[in-house]
Write a structure and sequence with these properties.
Blueprint lengths: L1 E6 L4 H13 L2 E7 L3 H13 L5 E4 L5 H14 L6 E4 L14 H22 L8 E7 L11 H21 L5 E7 L5 H5 L4 H10 L11 H11 L11 E4 L7
Parallel strand pairs: 1-2, 1-4, 2-3, 4-5, 5-6, 6-7
Helix pairs in contact: 1-8, 3-4, 4-5
Length: 250
């Protein structure tokens, strides 16, 4: 049976990707989250309702202790073998560039970029030939999308380049590293309309900015992630795959 760890597994994208991986083929799923135990249990309950048996683990992968926790889970529960690593952790720092406190800038880089690199470093020995590593990113790493996305956009742009470098190292071992770059995806904040002003205006126009004319549910983009984590994606290496419904065309 395939094994998979989704870091950031309690977010809307992480939950959807976990469900997609489990639906595609029998998979032992582990979902790692930073600090919100209630969110971890909700995500696990949602996956159980879909027929899966997830292993939730509280692990802040920006810390040595968090990295040790996920590595220990892989050793203990997966017998040291990790077929799929999906990194979907993100720190949603939304601040005007000239007003952003330095600690928020650092936090964004730590969670989105440094956490990914450290996870890959720590877990690389567990990946077998045919393993898959997938980073989840967004189009703020490709273009300017609002006045408050500096921290997130810079971290995601760095994530794209980290994927390319790590892919060159791991491909000879039979492990593919790629990045899925998403446009706007439906989430709880959009539904409740609780985003900051500039981000809220961005959400309201996102449905009109691409030829699809709508904001997708997470399950739609999770199918692309599922493919990139599959054996069928063998020849896709070190790529930033944009799945945005054409949002960046305009």
């Amino acid at each position: 049976m395939r094994t998979a760890l989704i870091v950031g597994g309690t977010g809307n994208i992480g939950r959807a990707v976990a469900a997609e991986l489990g639906a595609r083929e029998p998979t032992r799923l582990a979902i790692a989250y930073g600090s919100d135990d209630a969110a971890g249990e909700r995500a696990a309950a949602e996956l159980r309702e879909a027929g899966h048996e997830p292993l939730p683990i509280r692990a802040d992968v920006t810390s040595d202790a968090g990295l040790a926790a996920v590595a220990g889970l892989v050793d203990r529960e997966f017998a040291g073998r990790l077929d799929v690593l999906v990194y979907s952790a993100v720190s949603r720092i939304l601040q005007p560039p000239l007003e952003m406190p330095p600690e928020q800038w650092t936090r964004s880089l730590d969670v989105t970029l440094t956490g990914f690199v450290r996870c890959v470093q720590r877990l690389a020995p567990a990946h077998p030939n045919g393993g898959r590593v997938l980073a989840i990113s967004g189009i703020s790493g490709l273009r300017v999308i609002s006045d408050v996305h500096l921290a997130m956009g810079a971290a995601k742009a760095g994530l794209h380049q980290a994927v390319r470098y790590l892919a060159t190292v791991l491909a000879p071992r039979g492990v593919n590293v790629n990045c899925l770059c998403l446009g706007t995806v439906m989430n709880e904040g959009i539904l409740r309309d609780e985003s900051p002003g500039q981000y809220r205006r961005f959400h309201r126009t996102a449905a009109d900015s691409g030829p699809k004319g709508r904001i997708p549910e997470p399950a739609i983009v999770a199918r692309v992630a599922g493919f990139l984590c599959s054996a069928d994606a063998e020849w896709i290496v070190g790529q930033v795959i944009v799945a945005d419904g054409g949002e960046t065309l305009r």
